[in-house]
Design goal:
One of its GO terms (molecular function) is nucleic acid binding. This protein has 10 helices and 20 strands. Helix 1 packs parallel to helix 2 and helix 4 packs parallel to helix 5.
């Protein structure tokens, strides 16, 4: 749903991406407003070079772009990139007025002002702070912000460890703003990517900073793995929301003739999946892409979709993303094609899938997780 955000910069009509009609969801929060109000009071030169980090739906960049022409947006989400472009266009701003830089690509400029939305994953924040260190000066203006409930002390410690001293603001509408003063702190060596081994198959897996369950294989996937067996009747398989690619990789190991498509909206997840595939299957053909789910997949082109869907988008918890992924899977599957879903038991995915698919089966379950197979 489109909602109006009025700031000292502009009055813009903004929406989340994917577009959701739920009236409680909007493309900005009080932390965005706090940042924009603060920046508007800075009286910065017109040629100031902006870097905006983790702008979930483009609210920050769209506003800044109404007054400044040198604006870069830096983040790990392809959906955030699409949201930025949609909101720029909807407000009659040139889509080229903001350059989106994926988290896996290097920064190339020195920035006068940096605006940071604190992300859910602190490893991502740490990696970003290490990367921007070489692109700021002692005079760079840096503000970070988050809703208080999403601002752990560890995030503040990371800002102080890698950038400099941090001053707290008073809370406004349950949002907190931090002013960070750059110090001459030595550039740290990034601890990312990290690696772990899946011993049953002797696999070493690369995991960049924003990968889900970066330190070890998640429990839900462990429940599914024994069922990813040889199946000569299933040849075209997609791992939807692939993370580091483990489900697709194990399917490929057990089915040497299968064709795999690995999809995720995280640039770091796709970088991890590509590195893992290359290490395990050097030379074997595969499609590994950052994408808005299966939106670009041809209808009725897949035999099977493997999916461990997220139940949140940024800090907002809900089943909207999962429902959308299920619909995309249904469109992409051939008649009698199968969708395999890993889910927490408390999520009512069985009923959601029954509305879309001809048959839904429970393959196995534990006290926490359930594996469902939906047949088109």
């Amino acid at each position: 749903m489109y909602k109006t955000l009025t700031t000292p910069f502009a009055s813009l009509v903004l929406a989340r991406y994917p577009l959701d009609s739920h009236p409680s969801l909007q493309a900005f929060d009080a932390a965005d407003e706090y940042l924009l109000t603060t920046v508007a009071q800075c009286a910065l030169p017109a040629n100031s070079q902006f870097l905006i980090i983790n702008d979930a739906f483009g609210a920050l960049a769209c506003n800044i772009a109404t007054s400044y022409s040198l604006v870069d947006s830096y983040g790990d989400s392809y959906l955030a990139e699409l949201a930025l472009k949609e909101n720029l266009a909807h407000n009659h701003l040139a889509t080229t007025s903001v350059q989106f830089i994926p988290s896996t690509e290097p920064l190339k400029k020195t920035y006068d002002i940096v605006l940071i939305k604190i992300p859910k994953t602190l490893a991502l924040l740490e990696e970003q702070l290490i990367k921007i260190k070489s692109h700021i000066t002692k005079n760079t203006v840096i503000y970070a912000a988050a809703m208080i409930k999403h601002l752990p002390k560890a995030a503040i410690l990371l800002l102080e460890k890698h950038i400099g001293s941090t001053k707290y603001s008073l809370a406004v509408k349950k949002a907190r703003l931090l002013t960070v003063t750059p110090h001459e702190i030595p550039l740290a060596q990034s601890p990312y990517p990290t690696y772990y081994s899946y011993q049953p198959l002797g696999l070493k897996l690369t995991n960049h900073a924003n990968v889900f369950c970066r330190e070890g294989l998640d429990i839900g996937t462990r429940v599914l793995i024994p069922y990813l067996k040889h199946n000569p009747h299933i040849q075209k398989v997609a791992d939807l929301g692939c993370g580091n690619g483990i489900m697709g990789i194990i399917w490929a190991m057990n089915n040497p003739e299968a064709e795999l498509v690995l999809i995720d909206e995280s640039y770091m997840a796709i970088a991890s999946a590509k590195e893992n595939w290359q290490r395990i299957f050097s030379g074997r053909a595969v499609v590994i892409n950052v994408s808005d789910g299966l939106i670009e997949q041809k209808n009725e082109s897949l035999d099977c979709v493997l999916c461990n869907p997220p139940f949140h988008q940024q800090q907002v918890i809900g089943d909207y993303i999962a429902r959308r992924m299920f619909k995309q899977a249904h469109n992409s599957l051939k008649p009698t094609g199968e969708l395999w879903v890993v889910a927490n038991r408390h999520l009512n995915y069985f009923q959601l899938l029954k509305k879309l698919f001809n048959e839904v089966k429970t393959i196995t379950q534990t006290n926490k997780f359930i594996i469902l197979k939906a047949i088109k």
